[in-house]
Amino acid sequence: MTETVAPATAAQPGGTVPTFLNLIDGEWRPSVTGRTFRSTNPADTRDVIGEFQASDAADAAAAIRAAETAYPGWRATPAPKRGEVLYRFAALLVEHKERLAQAMTREMGKVLAEARGDVQEGIDIAFLMAGEGRRMFGDTVPSELPDKWAMSIREPLGVAGIITPWNFPIAIPCWKMMPALVSGNTVVFKPASDAPHCATLLVKLMAEAGFPPGTVNLVTGSGEEAGMPIVASPDVSVISFTGNGATGRAIAVEAARRFKRLSLELGGKNGIVVMDDADPDLAAEGILWSAFGTTGQRCTACSRVIAHRAVVEPLLERLARGVAGLRLGNGLDPATDVGPLVNAGALDKAAGYVEVGRGEGELVIGGAPATDRPGLEHGHFFAPTIFRDVMPLARIAQEEIFGPVLAVITVDGYEEAAMVLNQTRYGLSSSIYTRDVNLAFRAMRDFGTGIVYVNAGTIGAETHLPFGGTKQTGNGHREAGHAALDTFTEWKAIYVDYSGRLQRAQIDNQPGPG
Ligand code: UN1
Fold it and tell me: 61 and 141, same structural domain?
C-alpha cells in the first residue's frame, strides 16, 4: 500500500495523489472493479488526500470469506489473549494520536483539538474493551437441584459487518470493532466514503497490533455497492451501523430478511432546556459548545434550545455574542473554533434549512455560507446560525440538519419544557440547566432520551456508559460500556449435572396433589 500521511498543508496542484487499497485477509488489495474514488479536504477541496478503492459485492464477498476463515481460530483464542491484542492496539493509538488527529482534521474538517478527542475516545474504548477480555461476566447461579451446576456465558456471533460514519472516523469504528473483536467475532469494516483515509490508517495500526490476518478486513466504497452486500450476506451474523435514518431503514429491512442481529445508531434532535433559575452564562457556554462544536455534526449536537420565557432574552444576547466571536477556518489552525461542513451536500442542506427557517422563526445571527470570506473560498464553510421564536413542531425544530443551525423555542414552565423536549421522533441526548435539585431529578425521569445531562451540554458522552437513544434514534441497542457486548454476543445457558443419576428438573417433577 502507498501509505503516506501527507503534509497538513494543501497538496500542490498536479502533485501526486497516493492510492490506498482494501485490507483483505491480511493483504492490501485493489478492488476487482478497478475503479477508485477521491477523498478531499473539506477546508480546501484542492487538497486531494488520496484515491480509494470503489469496491463492490465481489470485494465484500472476499472480505467476508476471509473473516469467516479467520473466525474459528480467533473464537478459540482465549478472551484475555484477545484482550492483549486490544491493549497493544490501544498503545499504538496513543503513540500515533497526533498523526491520526492531523489526518482526521485534514480529511473531515473537525478542529484539531476535537480530532485529538476523537482519537482519545478510540483509545478509551480500546482499553475498556481490552479489560473485558478478563471480565465478560456471565451469571453463575444456584441450581434448583442438588449436585447440579448452572451458569451462562457470552458467545460470539461470527462475522460482524461494521458500517460507520465520517463524523467520528476513529472513535466510532473503535466503539464497534473493539467489543466485536474482544468477544471473538471477526470483522468486515466498510467506512464512510468521506473518511476512508482515517479508516485505512486505523486498520493499518490494527494489523500492526497483531490482529491475525482475516480478523479485521477493510473494504472501502459506496453504501450501495460495498455496504449493502455485507448487510445482505448470509455469512455475516451481525451488523452495526451508525448513520442517517433512511440508510438505517434500508439496512433494517435487508437484515430482517435473515433475522440478522442489527444495532442502529441514527439521528438526533437534541434539546437543552434552560429554566428560569439557571446560570445564564453557564447555559450559554454549554449551548454554544453543543450546537457549534464539530460544526454541529454530532449525533449528540444540540439543535434545539427550550428556554423559559424569563431567561430567553439574556440567553439569546449571550448566544449571539458567543456566535459572533466564533472563528471559522481550517481546523489545523489553532485559532479556529469552527471548521467546515464535511461536503458540498452538507452545505446545501444547511442552506436549504435556513431558507425553511426564515418562514418559521426570526434569524438572530448567521444564515449563509461563509465561503465569501477570505481564506474560506475553497471549503464548505457555513456561518453558525441561530433562529428564535421557533414553534416546537416547525421543521427546523423537528428535522435533523447535521450542521450549525440552532432553533430557540420559548416556553412558560417546566411541564411545557419537558413536553416540547420529548416532542420529536428522536431520543438520543438531552439536557437541563437548573439550580433546583427537584427539577433536575424530574428531568432525569421525564426526558425520554438515552442520555440526559444536568447542567452540561448534550455532547461528550464517556465511553464506559451505554451510548444510544430511544425512538427513531435507533433500534434499542446501546454502544460503549459493557452494554456494547450485548450487540456482539449471544447468551448460552449451561447446566452440569454431577449427581451421576437422572434428576428431573423441577418443572418435570410435579407429582400433583394427593
Ligand atoms: C456521534 O456523533 O455519533 O457524546 C457520537 C459525544 C461523543 C460521541 C458522539 N462522545 O458527543
Answer: yes
CA of 461 to the centre of ligand 1 (A): 6
One domain for residues 99 and 236: yes
32 and 162 both lie in a single domain: yes
Asked if residue 403 has pLDDT above 60, the reply is yes
Dihedral angle computed from the Cα positions of residues 80, 85, 88 and 92, in that order, rounded to the nearest 10 degrees: -150
Any ligand 1 atom below 6 A from CB of 168: yes
Number of domains in the chain: 2
- Cα(386)–Cα(414) distance, integer angstroms: 23
* Residue 278 contacts residue 284 (beta carbons within 8 Å): no
- 3: helix, strand or coil: coil
Is pLDDT at 149 greater than 80 in this prediction?
Answer: yes
- Same domain for 161 and 90: yes
Residue whose CA is at the smallest distance from ligand 1 atom 3: 299
**Strands of 362-365's sheet, edge to edge?**
362-365, 385-388, 405-411, 302-308, 270-274, 429-433, 451-454
Instruction: Give me the CATH number covering residue 208.
Output: 3.40.605.10
Assess if residue 2 is contained within a domain: no
Shared domain check, 336 and 258: no
Kindly state whether residue 140 falls inside one of the protein's structural domains: yes
Q: Please indicate whether residue 265 is annotated as part of the active site.
A: yes
- Whole domain around residue 80: which residue ranges? 17-266
Interstrand relation of 362-365 and 385-388 (parallel, antiparallel or unpaired)? antiparallel
3-state secondary structure (DSSP) of residue 40: strand
Q: Is residue 495 part of a domain?
A: no
Pocket test for ligand 1, best of 299, 428, 463 (most atoms within 8 A of CB): 299
459 lines ligand 1 (CB under 6 A): yes
Ligand 1 atom 6 nearest Cα: 460
Q: Is 448 helix (H, G, I), strand (E, B) or coil?
A: coil
Q: 144 C-alpha to center of ligand 1: Å?
A: 45
Annotated catalytic residue within 51, 299, 302, 479: 299
C-alpha cell at 433: 440547566
Q: Pick from 244, 266, 288: which residue ends a domain?
A: 266
**Residue 473 CB less than 6 A away from ligand 1:** no
Q: Is residue 231 domain-shared with residue 293, that is, in the same domain?
A: no
Catalytic residue among 114, 121, 254, 265: 265
In this prediction, residue 510 carries a pLDDT of 87
Confidence category of residue 14, pLDDT binned at 50, 70, 90: low
The answer to whether 161 and 188 are in contact (CB under 8 A) is yes
Q: Check if 299 has its Cβ closer than 6 Å to any atom of ligand 1.
A: yes
Residue 98 included in any domain: yes
pLDDT at 10 > cutoff 90:
no
437-494: pLDDT as tens digits: 999 999 999 999 999 999 999 999 999 999 999 999 999 999 999 999 999 999 999 9
Domain boundary among the residues 250, 266, 282 is at: 266
Is the pLDDT at 360 greater than 70? The verdict is yes
